[in-house]
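Hi V.,

You were right to ask for the full record rather than a summary. Here it is.
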Amino acid sequence: MNRKIIIYSEFTFLPGLLLLALGTALTEKAALGMSMVVAPAYVIYLFISGIYPWFTFGMAEYLFQALLIVLLSLFLRRLKPGYLFSFMTAVIYGILLDLMMKLTGSLQAVTMLMRLVLFGGGLVLCALGVALLFHTYIPPEAYELIVKELVSAYNLPLARTKTVYDCISAVTAVVLSFLCFGFGTFAGVGPGTIFSAVVNGALIGAFSGLLEKYCDFPDMLGGREFFTS
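Predicted structure:
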């Protein structure tokens, strides 16, 4: 019997955020449409940065996620300590995203093949990052937190719940794009957004399955009860 690799759950947090930030930056460079979960924040970033150039993608992310956490608390009628830490995670992610945007700033997708490679790589990195975040008790950013809490509260299947949430995010991005830039304008939304909405949940589920097949994720510091109570 093969023994599984031990990865302490606390150690999946930062790698998950790094992969997610890099994947998002690569997707933005592909210019085929942002991943559906970040598309609403990206539309907000495009609109506000057009007025205030200092406003960054990362800022749009953690401000939008703060709104999502408030809505989650109202929907479930409870406020866990983890929800507040989730906002802190969103801030860390926002900082990492702005860093990755700068590091990938010189990338030029001059051909469709390069755009497809960047988009595919970004999609895979984001899915793996989310799968890693699902295996830590440290609160993830709001996007993953919402799915995680709904799955836990209502005993829902992870992959299907993630897919439904992603589709709602894609529709939200389209509505925001129309409101911010005029009807018929799909700012930050494209064929890649729709493709991601369809396959991302299954991709995350597949990565989660592979991680659980070959790895165990025990806690090292014992902080799970604090964050989940």
